[in-house]
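Researcher: Let's do a round of design. I'm pasting the structure tokens now; please hold your answer until I've finished.
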């Protein structure tokens, strides 16, 4: 379950952020997870429950937003969302497309006290 190592990294980053800003706790953290990132949101939430214990994130509200897979067709230049890798372009049915987004995992914002 690689979500546990991701959760641990999120906590480590948040603790460093709190130290750098002389904060005693974090009220809220917002995460963005791409639909095509390979991260299982429910597993990440479960891992975070344990990873935040006795840290600055222990009482924080954790908001996770899922970012859809966004592609651009090489043939007709149509941009479109899709939730799986091998889906044809909705305009020309080509399978050749460029990934524009949806693979990321990032901390969008941190709210501190």
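Researcher: That's everything. Go ahead.
Model: Designed sequence:
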């Amino acid at each position: 379950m690689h979500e546990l190592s991701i959760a641990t990294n999120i906590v480590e980053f948040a603790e460093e952020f709190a130290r750098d800003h002389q904060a005693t706790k974090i009220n809220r953290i917002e995460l963005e997870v791409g639909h095509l990132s390979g991260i299982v949101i429910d597993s990440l939430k479960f891992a975070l429950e344990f990873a935040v214990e006795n840290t600055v994130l222990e009482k924080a509200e954790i908001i996770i937003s899922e970012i859809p897979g966004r592609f651009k067709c090489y043939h007709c230049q149509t941009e479109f969302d899709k939730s799986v890798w091998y889906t044809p372009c909705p305009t020309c049915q080509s399978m050749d497309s460029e990934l524009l987004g949806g693979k990321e995992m990032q901390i969008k914002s941190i709210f501190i006290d």
